Amino acid sequence: MNNTKWRLIPYQSHAPAWNMALDEAILTAISENQAPPTLRFYGWNPATLSIGYFQRAEKEVNLERLKELGWGFVRRMTGGRAVLHDSELTYSIIAPETHPSVQGSVSESYRYLSQGLLRGYQNLGIEAELAPPAKSSKGIQSAACFDAPSDYELVVHGRKAAGSAQVRQKGVVLQHGSILLDLDIERLFEVLMFSTEEIRNARKQELEQKAVSIHQCSSQPFYIQEVEHAFTQGMIEGLELDVEVGKLSPYEEEMAHQLVQNKYANDDWNYKR
């Protein structure tokens, strides 16, 4: 049992820059002992394409089409590939590197944190399991995040059910990820760039076979509140967390506003590569 009291920030929908700024502000506050370990659930308004820290926006994303569709766009501080955040529950779990929930290697902490996600799926009556560590694969990967499970990510019948990414900075671990209620591959591929239509179609078919959403796994529809409840309980049970519902401190809010202005709503950051 972890003795630390965790702060739970319940689900709210935010603009893309604010979502990413909040995750970073919480990470910084924790690094300065200004905030407890935090579990946060959130959504995106408008629907948003986020890209990984190392991706090249101009090369991999059709920015014109993105604007036409009215979607948000943001670069994450974590690695990984493009994710369309629309019909999903996003989580972030942020704690000092020394904390039992996240200590050890990236793979070890993924494995541990995935226990909370696993329990969340089980709470919805979906039989998920952890993907075993991957053998090195030389296959071509697309720009889309859900095309292959990483070590210890959640799979249902061999298909990836939740995509997560992790970063470690200032002695703190931040892991955030998407729990898909629905997966609209057509919409995602509308805004990704490929050198030929053949490659686009091949990647699309691969993704259809490799990724799966909650509503594809279950015969009953779920509201976002039901999914949030299932995964809140899942994290509490699976990771043995002692949580207290909380909110951001004025310090974190102020820092998040600065990060929106100087970083996440800023073209220099979002298009920098």
TrEMBL record:
CDD domains for this protein:
LplA
Q: Which SUPFAM superfamilies match?
A: Class II aaRS and biotin synthetases (SSF55681)
The record places domain BPL/LPL catalytic at 33-243
The EC number on file is 6.3.1.20
Q: Name one GO molecular function term.
A: lipoate-protein ligase activity
Pfam families to which the protein is assigned, alphabetical: LplA-B_cat
Indicate the transmembrane segments per the record.
none
- Give the keywords, sorted: Ligase
Domain of life assignment: Bacteria
Q: Name one GO biological process term.
A: protein lipoylation
InterPro entries in alphabetical order: aa-tRNA-synth_II/BPL/LPL (IPR045864), BPL_LPL_catalytic (IPR004143), Octanoyltrans_LipM/LipL (IPR050664)
Q: Which PANTHER family match?
A: OCTANOYL-[GCVH]:PROTEIN N-OCTANOYLTRANSFERASE, OCTANOYLTRANSFERASE LIPM-RELATED
Name of the protein in question: Lipoate-protein ligase A
Q: Which organism is it from?
A: Croceifilum oryzae
